[in-house]
Amino acid sequence: MPKGEERKLAALAKKNAAKAAKVKPNKRRQYDDTLPPEREEDLELRDFFSEMKKREF
What is the pLDDT along the chain (57 residues), one digit of tens a residue? Predict the structure, then answer.
């Protein structure tokens, strides 16, 4: 890989990392400071149950 491409790739990775750091937190938790921070498991469960609500059985 030429040096120019490596630099571009490194700059893109740095840009994407900065963008990922700016992800907005869940609004519900933003207004309630007493709630514990969300864990990865909580996010997965929330996504799972939101999908299940959309389905009909």
Answer: 678 888 888 898 888 888 776 665 555 556 677 777 767 778 788 888 888 888 876
The gap between the terminal CA atoms of the chain, to the nearest Å, is 53
For the chain, the residue count is 57
Strand ranges inside 1-57, DSSP E: none
d(CA 43, CA 23): 14
CA quadruple 20, 24, 26, 31: dihedral, nearest 10: 150
Q: Could you count the other beta carbons within 10 Å of the beta carbon of residue 29? A: 14
